[in-house]
Amino acid sequence: NAGVTQTPKFQVLKTGQSMTLQCAQDMNHNSMYWYRQDPGMGLRLIYYSASEGTTDKGEVPNGYNVSRLNKREFSLRLESAAPSQTSVYFCASSVIRGGGELFFGEGSRLTVL
Amino acid sequence: DQQVKQNSPSLSVQEGRISILNCDYTNSMFDYFLWYKKYPAEGPTFLISISSIKDKNEDGRFTVFLNKSAKHLSLHIVPSQPGDSAVYFCAASAWETSYDKVIFGPGTSLSVIP
């Protein structure tokens, strides 16, 4: 009964380093999302995958890439980390036309020095 | 330009009293409005939602009211309990061709004082 699982939970990077955040869901959901949460900003959509094999940009995609590896897994990659990418990242999933009801992972706290 | 606004960053309420959290939105195309609750070091969890064709939805101690003409919704928690202390995100959703586009407000931190 895991729901949405994200790894790692914490990561510290130096400017210019790269890393990948992993996300997997076991609810057979078609749609998956990556959000970032910053103080006073709420959650902002980085990328989404409406269904397996498709990905698209959200509100703040610059500096990120994604891969929808299969129906369960959706990864987020930072190719060259910048201090502005210090944030808490949340992966989420949903059914299609779920009215906005998203199921979130526990989050990944990333610090870029 | 924030499409979903929560103008109160924080709110303190005595245990047993009513908590009222407010939210305003700007886009008339939203078809669902939702509230999410978030505890520290956890992901947000869905709490309650309302369709744009309704004006009230109730689930136990939680009631959401929608005023479409004013583009305003509110979450009422009665009675408030210490376990309700969390950050509450208002969100609005619209179907965008292939996915549910969900826009979140900045959140209101609720403290329920025993």
From the structure above, extract its key features.
A: 113 residues, mainly beta, seven-stranded mixed beta sheet, four-stranded antiparallel beta sheet, 51% strand, globular, B: 114 residues, six-stranded mixed beta sheet, five-stranded antiparallel beta sheet
How would you characterize this protein structure?
The complex is a heterodimer of chains A (113) and B (114). Helices cover 0% and strands 51% of the residues of chain A. By secondary structure, chain A is mainly beta. In chain A, strands 2, 4, 5, 6, 9, 10 and 11 form a 7-stranded mixed beta sheet that branches. Chain A has a 4-stranded antiparallel beta sheet with strand order 1-3-8-7, with no helix packed on it. In chain A, a hairpin with a 3-residue loop joins strand 4 (31-38) and strand 5 (42-49). Chain A is globular and about 40 Å long. Chain A starts with a strand and ends with a strand. Chain B is an all-beta fold and 114 residues long. Chain B is 0% helix and 59% strand. In chain B, strands 2, 4, 5, 9, 10 and 11 form a 6-stranded mixed beta sheet that branches. A 5-stranded antiparallel beta sheet of chain B has the order 1-3-8-7-6, with no helix packed on it. The mean pLDDT of chain B is 95. Classes of the chains: A mainly beta (113), B mainly beta (114). Chain A binds chain B through residues 4, 31, 33, 35, 40-45, 48, 50-51, 54, 56, 90, 92, 94, 96-107, and chain B through 2, 4, 9, 31-32, 34, 36, 41-46, 49, 51, 89, 91-93, 95, 98-102, 104-107.
